[in-house]
């Protein structure tokens, strides 16, 4: 049984950010990660052509900026290199291949009892921690919706987190389901390399250029009202793209920044997908109603055959599977119960970082707030050990 002051679960950007903030405050911690590397989502579960959607100044972790020669929009490799430098700079040594299987609060010892599985030795490791930080992410597991007949589909079915590049799909007909950033970019990756590609667009979506989003973020930072910023960038986007409703792309009533703030849903940053849709290179289809062998039926009555389906249908948090007594912090979906900005603290020294659907800048805020809160409690406790 290892006694630690703070246990951080997950060594993605969130866990690493808390670790860095705690070490700046001279607070000892232990950080565990189920995979064999840090930022495993970025290294193992993202597509090759991924670039950060936001300008680098909105994607920094606490206490360390990007090198000045870094381009405004950085790619996956550059982000991973930044994470590696971050881990080195703050002397973070995550305990890798260590998957937390259960955590519960012990009222007698006032500590969190944690059981973890060491995937290398196969041994069970027990920790007892005064503070527990959930940093396992909103993207812990891919969601694949239930569709009648999907199990009998003879072709390949993958989630976007397993998609790497068009290479594996030459000569195939691919259906991409979902019109968020991943779905739209994967459709572009496939179609721009000659793969027959269709995309299912079911719900309204804001299509934007990255320049417009960058402009909007700057205006919001200058404290202009969000509704006004939304009005400006939607107007500019409509000038840039024209009416897209005839292609099946409909704008939500609420503007993109307000929508992000209220629901966490991001605008789609167009990487060229819309032009391919306009040219008819990418076909847009309505919702899938059912699947019969390799033939897929759509809600508007259409019927097409495909070799592969890529589900770009989002992710979910899995913290509830291992966290007991976390009801004060997380709801049944493993997401914060309380609204931003009061989402990060539960009872008995329990915290979450990176679950506010606010990307890397939200992670940075959460990490600083949580570390400062732990510091103030530790200071008032006197000596813990
Ligand atoms: C494709 C994609 C693109 C994105 N692009 C951007 C962007 O451009 N800008 C932006 O700001 N945000 C972006 N995001 C959102 C967000 O910033 C990233 O998802 C970020 O990696 C989240 O960091 P995290 O540490 O909270 O979660 P993760 O990166 O998911 O890290 C959580 C870690 O916890 C580990 N873990 C999970 N369960 C356990 C367990 N039981 N025990 C031990 N370890 C566990 C996981 O293995 C993982 O390494 C993107 C997300 C995705 C999916
Ligand atoms: C859990 O909270 C999130 C926001 O943090 C919300 O989107 C989701 O609908 C909630 N789920 C449940 C089951 O209440």
UniProtKB/TrEMBL annotation:
InterPro entries registered for this protein in UniProt: Auxin_biosynth/cation_transpt, FAD/NAD-bd_sf, Flavin_mOase
- Keywords for the protein's UniProt record, in alphabetical order: Oxidoreductase, Signal
For this protein, the Enzyme Commission number is 1.14.13.168
Q: Which catalytic reaction applies to this protein? A: indole-3-pyruvate + NADPH + O2 + H(+) = (indol-3-yl)acetate + CO2 + NADP(+) + H2O
* EC category: oxidoreductase
Q: Which PROSITE patterns match?
A: PROKAR_LIPOPROTEIN (PS51257)
This entry's Gene Ontology molecular function terms read: flavin adenine dinucleotide binding; indole-3-pyruvate monooxygenase activity; monooxygenase activity; NADP binding
- Specify the domain of life of the species encoding this protein: Eukaryota
Secretion signal, residue range per the UniProt entry: 1-19
Family membership: Belongs to the FMO family.
Q: What is the protein name given in its UniProt record?
A: indole-3-pyruvate monooxygenase
Species name: Setaria italica
The organism's taxonomic lineage, starting at the top:
Eukaryota, Viridiplantae, Streptophyta, Embryophyta, Tracheophyta
């Amino acid at each position: 049984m290892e006694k630690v002051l703070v246990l951080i679960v997950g060594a993605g950007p969130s866990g690493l950010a808390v670790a860095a903030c705690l070490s700046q405050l001279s607070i000892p911690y232990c950080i565990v990660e189920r995979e064999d590397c840090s930022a495993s989502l970025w290294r193992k579960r993202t597509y090759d052509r991924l670039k950060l959607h936001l300008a680098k100044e909105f994607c920094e972790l606490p206490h360390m900026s990007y090198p000045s020669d870094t381009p405004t929009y950085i790619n996956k490799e550059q982000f991973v290199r930044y994470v590696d430098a971050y881990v080195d700079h703050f002397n973070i040594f995550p305990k890798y291949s260590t998957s937390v299987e259960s955590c519960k609060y012990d009222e007698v010892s006032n500590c969190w009892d944690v059981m973890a599985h060491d995937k290398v030795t196969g041994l069970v490791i027990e920790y007892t921690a005064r503070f527990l930080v959930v940093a396992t992410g909103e993207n812990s597991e891919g969601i694949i919706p239930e569709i009648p007949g999907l199990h009998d589909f003879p072709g390949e079915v993958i989630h976007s987190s397993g998609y790497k590049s068009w290479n594996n799909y030459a000569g195939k007909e691919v259906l991409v389901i979902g019109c968020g950033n991943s779905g739209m970019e994967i459709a572009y990756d496939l179609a721009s390399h000659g793969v027959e590609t269709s995309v299912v667009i079911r719900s309204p979506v804001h299509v934007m250029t990255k320049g417009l989003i960058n402009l909007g973020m700057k205006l919001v930072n200058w404290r202009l009202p969000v509704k006004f910023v939304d009005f400006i960038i939607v107007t500019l986007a409509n000038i840039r793209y024209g009416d897209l409703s005839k292609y099946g792309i409909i704008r939500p009533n609420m503007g993109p920044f307000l929508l992000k703030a209220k629901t966490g849903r991001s605008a789609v940053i167009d990487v060229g997908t819309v032009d391919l849709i306009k040219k008819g290179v990418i076909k847009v289809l309505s919702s899938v109603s059912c699947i019969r062998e390799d033939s897929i039926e759509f809600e508007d009555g259409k019927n097409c055959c495909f070799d592969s389906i890529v589900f770009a249908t989002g992710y979910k948090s899995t913290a509830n599977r291992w966290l007991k007594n976390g009801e004060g912090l997380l709801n049944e979906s493993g997401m914060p119960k309380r609204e931003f900005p009061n989402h990060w603290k539960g009872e008995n020294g329990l915290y979450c970082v990176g679950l506010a659907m606010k990307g890397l800048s939200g992670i940075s805020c959460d990490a600083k707030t949580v570390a400062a809160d732990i510091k103030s409690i530790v200071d008032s406790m006197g000596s813990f050990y």
